Amino acid sequence: MPSITVEPCTFALFGALGDLALRKLFPALYQLDGAGLLHEDTRVIALAREPGSEQEHLAFIASELRRYVGAELDEAVVERFLSRLSYLHVDFLKADDYVALAEMAGSAQRVIAYFATPAAVYGAICENLSKVGLAENTRVVLEKPIGSDLESSRKVNDAVAQFFPENRTYRIDHYLGKETVQNLIALRFANSLFETQWNQNYISHVEITVAEKVGIEGRWGYFDKAGQLRDMIQNHLLQLLCLIAMDPPADLSADSIRDEKVKVLKALAPISPEGLTTQVVRGQYIAGYSEGKPVPGYLEEPNSNTQSDTETFVALRADIRNWRWAGVPFYLRTGKRMPQKLSQIVIHFKEPSHYIFAPEQRLQISNKLIIRLQPDEGISLRVMTKEQGLDKGMQLRSGPLQLNFSDTWRSARIPDAYERLLLEVMRGNQNLFVRKDEIEAAWKWCDQLIAGWKKSGDAPKPYAAGSWGPMSSIALITRDGRSWYGDI
Ligand code: BG6
User: Fold this and answer.
1) Are residues 132 and 198 in the same domain?
2) Rounded to an integer, what distance in angstroms lies between the CA atom of residue 299 and that of residue 319?
3) Which of 78, 20, 74, 11 is closest to 46 using CA atoms?
4) pLDDT in tens, 63-72
């Protein structure tokens, strides 16, 4: 039996027939049900604006659920989950359509309204929930992207804030729900070995790579307006950077953690116009190969606009202006159509202060902490040891001290990020959600890059699908006398 208790709720999922709901949210709710983490009185209402009968939509949701849960499916759990589920046709902009939702929610003590819809309608949904008396005990969950720059994100946040206070507003960044991302806090603050070394005295630089093998998977309409900076850096990579760079919070409360993260975002050095060419690389994939098969370039994807200069790759060097990180660059890199799916953070420690080994071995002397977020979640610490053998002398080699999460805790399934996040919303814990001022500080930093790109008019650099990005992303780091770890 689970050791935590979760209160009953009515979970109203707006945009229930969309890709995110079908691929991630229903399967996550199903898994929570299977793990005994949905209260028996919890109900799920799927809301969408597509015409069609309730029966037809529920059957579709059920078949998609079976498809996405796949091999782990337990029919008994599916049946139980489906018995909680109902469907409501709603025009999100029409207040009258919400009356039925209010009736269905009835006397539920807690309503959770999850917006898996475009952010442009968040304000209207909030207003309509309030009109039918559903603002009082409701927590609202906002999917990213919240806006496309500081100004538009403020508009969305302000529209929501008219009806829902910050302590009932949950902004999703699904990376914060990943088990290994949460582990960053344990790793840093529960191990004095690391915490004492976690600063510019001992760390030379940090790499954060979030590479995806896929292209844009039919999401041209959305992606082309966003690009990789807005889609990945503004949220996921900056959140990872915050968790690595933040000072120890006073405690584990949501606000203590978020206060520290905001400080990091505010300490990010703006990138100068010259820095835009030396410190930042934008790329766009051209045709190439993925898993040995030819794949089209970004401009040849279905429904594409052949003139687009949207970036599908960004690499940059970020500097944090505070005592802890002075002189320690953070190299961030993320792209679509890379050779493999890989999210990884590499902490490079400095060389020992006094060097006594053969000069030709010097280059490899530095400890590295490799935190693998996905796939094959785990941690590996590269340490220097002596090669064994009578004929070896004091020849050094770098070897791993390894902790692979799935091998070490075989019985424990690694939950999907959305399972954790939905559970935390139900428990009222805002730890893993992004506060308004965090989102805004992240936008502020990204806006200056976007403005700089616009002003320069430079097109993104091409890179072949299946490669690690444009050559200039290698120059970006080698210019500082370093290289991307492993490449990879
Ligand atoms: C989403 C982006 O937020 O994250 C997608 O919009 C991206 O473009 C996805 O593919 C990556 O998430 P994950 O969990 O697969 O690394």
Assistant:
1) no
2) 33
3) 11
4) 999 999 988 8
Average the pLDDT over 285-314 and give the result.
Answer: 93
3-class DSSP state of 385 = strand
**Rounded Cα distance, 255 and 242, in Å:** 14
Alpha helices in 172-272 (DSSP H): 179-189, 192-195, 220-228, 238-245, 254-267
Position 255 in a domain: yes
Cis-peptide into 145, omega within 30 deg: yes
End-to-end CA distance of the chain: 41
b/e string for 72-106 if b means 16 or more Cβ within 10 A?
Answer: eeeeebbeebbebbebbbbebeeeebbeebeebbe
| C-alpha–C-alpha distance, residues 432 and 333, integer Å | 23
Q: Tokens 């002397």, residue?
A: 365
Query: Each residue of 126-175: pLDDT tens digit?
Result: 999 999 999 988 999 999 989 999 999 999 999 999 999 999 999 999 99
* CA distance linking residue 268 with residue 271, whole number of Å: 9
What is this structure's pTM? Answer: 0.94
Per the structure block, which two tokens stand in for 107?
């006397």
Look-up: residue for tokens 């969309």?
Answer: 18
CA of 230 to the centre of ligand 1 (A): 12
Domain hosting 96: range is 9-143
pLDDT of residue 382: 87
Distance CA(195)–CA(187), nearest Å, equals 9
- Residue identified by tokens 């790109």 is 453
In total, the chain counts a number of residues equal to: 488
Ligand 1, atom 15: nearest CA belongs to which residue?
212
Q: Which residues line ligand 1 (CB under 6 A)?
A: 212, 231, 343
Q: Kindly state whether residues 98 and 54 are assigned to the same domain.
A: yes
- Probe ligand 1: pick from 144, 231, 314, 373, max atoms within 8 Å of CB? 231
Do residues 119 and 13 both lie within one domain?
A: yes
